[in-house]
Each structure stands twice: as structure tokens, then as C-alpha cells.
Amino acid sequence: KKTLAIGGICCGIFLMLGSSLQQIGIQYTTAGKAGFITALYILIVPILGMVVGKKAGIKVWIGVVLAVIGMYFLCMTSGFSIAKGDFYILLGSVAFSFHILVIDHFSPKADGVKMSCIQFFVCGLISLIPMFALETPTISGLLAGWFPLFYAGVLSCGVGYTLQIVGQKNVNPTVASLLLSLESCFSVLAGWIILGERLSVREGMGCVLMFAAIILAQLPEKKKEEI
Q: What is the DSSP letter of 40?
């Protein structure tokens, strides 16, 4: 129970930090830059992982490089420069990286669904502080936005982050970060298939590179033959 509680609390803290910093930063930058900078956790996770002894093979590192290039093609449609909003989002990406590593540490030791419930409770509880300090929430405002709040709370957060905790139980954190970064690919492909949005050659190349990175990272390492 102690491990479950500590894991849920740590996950909730980093989830709150990552989500809040991302939402603050996206006010001052473009969606493409926000998506690219947020997804830099695919590079931050293996670097932080080495500090705590989580090593990744050469194929995974090549996959990370391919994924970063693919994400650049997918998200960056104009020049790149660092502004105030980009810095906030970069801090959020670091928080999401710690979130992935915390899940990697605690998920094999605790019940994933219970830990996810504690995570959401802690995240929501801490979020109340800046909500009342910086905003003026009203019942009418909440009722007016009930559907997007419900969708984001139940599906995007509830289902998505719970499945992440359950799925990460036996997955290398670097590989997990690569898989999570596919949200950008799926959003572009869904817009192309469902909404009829135009998919440029550059975006298509980015998707191909990212899928190639995932496949490469999942390939099993060759075992050394015993002499």
C-alpha cells in the first residue's frame, strides 16, 4: 500500500506539472511547435534513464533519432526559434519524461488501475490551487463546456493514462516514450481520413519515419552465440 500510494502521488504531481506547463506554453506558441517540443521526451527519457541505470540498445537510440527527425517534419512547418511559450512547453516535456520514468519504476510493483486512480486524484487536487488562484471558475462556465471536459477527462486522461500505466509494466521506458509519441501521427492521419484534411508530403514523410523508428526499436536484439 505504501508503494502504491507513493507511486500514485508522484505520478499525479508530474502529470499535473506536465499538463499545466504545456497548456500555459501553448498560449504563446504554435500548435506545431508545441507538439514537437512536447514530444522531445522521446529524447529526454533515454538520457534521464541512463542516470538511473536504464540502458537502451543501439537500435532504440537510432529509433529515437529517427523519431525526432520525423516529429520535426510532422510538426514544424516554419522556422524554429525559442520563445517564452516554447520554454514552458520544454519544461512540461521534462515533467512528462519524469512521469514516464516514475511509471516505469512503480508499475511493476503496484496495481496499475489503483495507482492511476490515485494519480488523477492527486493531479486534480493540486490543480485546484492554481485554478482558484489564477482564474474565476463558475458553474455556468463548467456547464457550458461539459462535453469537452467530459471527453478530455474520461478518454484522453482517464483511459489514456490508465492504459499507459498498465502497459508500461513490462516495457522499456524509452520504447514507451516512442510509442506514446505516435499520438502526433495518429492525429494527423485521423484528420486526413476522417476530417478530409490535406496530408502534405512532409507530414507523410514524418509519419513514415516515426513508424519506422517504432518498428526498429521493437526488433529483438540478436543473442550472442555461446562458444
A: T
